[in-house]
Amino acid sequence: MTEKELLSKLKTIITPYVQNQEGLIKLTEDTDFIKDLEINSANLVDVILDVEDEFDIEIDNDAMEKMLTVKASIEVIADKLAAK
Amino acid sequence: MIGNDIVDLRFAREQSNWRRSGWLQKLFSDAEQHQILSSQNPHLQLWTFWSMKEAAYKVHQRRFSLLPKYNPMDFQCAIEGEVYVNNYAYKIISEITEQYVYSIARVVSDMQYSSEVCEIGTQVRDQLKEMIVNTLGIKTLISFSKDKNGIPVVYLDKKRTNIAISLTHHGRYSAFAVGL
Q1: pLDDT tens per residue across span A55-75
Q2: What is the mean pLDDT of chain B?
Q3: From B83's CA, which of A29, A84, B4, B173 has a CA 20 to 30 Å away?
Q4: Is the ipTM of this complex over 0.90?
Q5: How far apart are CA B176 and CA A22, in angstroms?
């Protein structure tokens, strides 16, 4: 899977939890889920569970703690996919 | 050092389906899950624990200038109003109403503070300025910013201070706390 495909899938996953739609329009690698998209911190766990389901991977605590930005999330997903 | 966190209980009910498979397990230890599920009001117990963890996260992050992390499992709640992270303990006071749970975390329980819960639409920054003026007797220009880790910083006459503040927002409510 290319990084572009990963990004597009991730965007679909986070969309229902985004409270600042403008941030979604301007989405880049540096986008911060909480700061830029105003995703509620209690909904980040839903993003993580959706990522697990979509990519059929397991996100452990060490990986989860990094998943606050688009870039970090793509790295985590790519790593887990490579280890499959 | 202070951290605070508010949960709008109605908004939480709409926003989160905590009965979803894997949801509790990612955020709460076995002991916490047991306490939540055996509670008379699991919804309330869960969001109380969550606000305790979030408040403790904020004070811990400020105390050690930590980078942002999503690590709720590192913060363990004790029912008596404490949260443990690594070898540190934080004292928690939680205010529970029918509408919200509001938790304040401090390093020591005798640290003085002021706090306020506001409804949506309130100019929170103005209220916070007023509180700083009234509680600390300050008459200079007050402004706010965030440091590189996203921790709020108070400036007086454009000079950075160590005044500890914490802001929180969820659903219909905002709140803030100032360490005195």
Answers
A1: 999 999 999 999 999 999 999
A2: 95
A3: B173
A4: yes
A5: 26
Tell the residue number behind the tokens 């202070």, with chain if given: B2
pTM for the model: 0.96
- Whose CA is closest to A19, among B120, B149, B175? B120
- Closest by CA to B26, choosing from A54, A44, A69, is A44
Token pair belonging to B69: 């992390």
What is the per-residue pLDDT for A2? 87
The structure tokens listed for A16 are 């229902």
Q: Are the CB atoms for A27 and A9 separated by under 8 Å?
A: no
Q: Are B81 and B90 in contact (CB under 8 A)?
A: no
Handedness of CA B84, A36, B96, B39 (dihedral sign): negative
Alpha helices by DSSP H, listed for chain B, are 9-15, 23-27, 30-37, 42-64, 124-136
Tokens of B135: 């509680």
- Choose from A64, A67, A71 for mutation: most chain B CBs within 10 A: A64
Beta bridge pairs of residue B90? B83
DSSP string, B34-59: HHHHTSSSHHHHHHHHHHHHHHHHHH
CA distance A52 to chain B (A): 10
Contact state of A52 with B22 under an 8 Å Cβ cutoff: yes
